[in-house]
Amino acid sequence: MKLVPTTTEDAIKKARSRENIRLLYIAGAGRSGSTLLSSVLGEGDGVCNVGEVQRIWERGILEKGLCGCAKTVEECQFWQETFNAAFDEGINSVNIEEMVRVVNTLVRMRNIISLLLKIKLNKFSDNERICLQQLEKLYVAIYEQHPERIIIDASKYPSYALLLSHVLKLDVFVVHLTRNPFAVAYSWGRKKFNPDRKANMKNMSAFKSTFVWVSWNLFLQVLCSVIYGRKYMQMKYSSFIDNPNNELSRLENFLDRENIFTRFDKNREMSVAVQHTIAGNPMRFEGERMKLKYDDNWVKNISPVQKIFVHIVSWPWRKFLGY
Ligand SMILES: [Zn+2]
After folding, report:
1. Distance, CA 145 to ligand 1 centroid (Å)?
2. Cα(301) to centroid of ligand 1, in Å?
3. What's the pLDDT tens digit per position in 139-185?
4. Of 20, 63, 126, 314, which has the fewest Cβ atoms less than 10 A away?
5. pLDDT in the model for residue 6
């Protein structure tokens, strides 16, 4: 995408910023543990966890959702400063409804072929270009808050990662987080209150959640591993839960950085400070001490009907995807 900066100085600054913006993108199907992983990573001194930025326009601004600091996104100082740095006349100068419409349409998985063609042929509509410029300004402003840090973005959508790396030209590293499809289906079927929405979290049938699990993970494993090459790695949620410090070291190797993440103590605990994150699992509001629990609740509690649906939908692919 061609951007149109106002001055040469702006152009140099933007170009320099973009190529320096290293972003660790957590991709994967919903309920795979991305909020937990991003919260743990966000404790490190060398990173800045901003949660699911893809949802900032809809959940964060339009629906007045809560930041991880428990203030609304518009009241949060981190986001206020980011918006003021990104947009000359603040967030009110941005057409939020249009941002929601364009970003959601571009990243919808059923539109993935259309997105790949648009990227390949550089054929975005004028409206889409304007929205992508606003998106780019937002990421540059996040980066400029802590230029020495790696941004953690847990937006999950495989297609949104493509937008960041191949359209905005950020330096994107993709960690593909996978979780057992039975655990995912069980999580989608559970009732859990979300203070962000002041309602229970969305539910999904085992049939649908497993269909999403198969299609998203296949796309990531087959296509994104080729597109991103050495900037792609897989992580199993269960491996992270069983041996978190090992997986944190593996991530540091992947990013070619040392000691950027905080480690768990021998009791599998870690102190967590406030992080200014968008959307995600309500565990992001759970307080100052995090203790990792083993991921086995679903084994005892998943219903026989859920089990059957997961078996049927995931059967041909499960082994290929490592489960
Ligand atoms: Zn905040």
Report:
1. 13
2. 35
3. 999 998 888 899 999 999 999 999 999 999 999 999 999 999 999 99
4. 126
5. 47
- Which residues, at least 6 apart from 51, have a Cβ–Cβ distance to it below 8 Å? 35, 38, 68, 153, 154, 275, 276, 277, 278, 279, 280, 284
* Full-model pTM: 0.91
Taking the centre of ligand 1 as the mean of its atom positions, its distance from the CA of residue 162, in whole angstroms, is 26
Counts for the chain of helices (H) and strands (E), in that order = 14, 9
Residue 109 Cα to ligand 1 middle (Å) = 29
> What is the whole-number distance in angstroms between the Cα of residue 205 and the centre of ligand 1?
33
Dist. CA 74 → ligand 1 center (Å)? 9
Question: Which domains are present in the chain?
Answer: 8-318 (3.40.50.300)
Q: Is the pLDDT of residue 196 over 80?
A: no
Q: Separation of 71 CA from ligand 1 center, angstroms? A: 6
Q: How far is the CA of 100 from the centre of ligand 1 (A)?
A: 21
Tokens describing residue 149: 């840090």
CA of 48 to the centre of ligand 1 (A): 12
Contacts of 318 (CB under 8 A, 6+ apart): 181
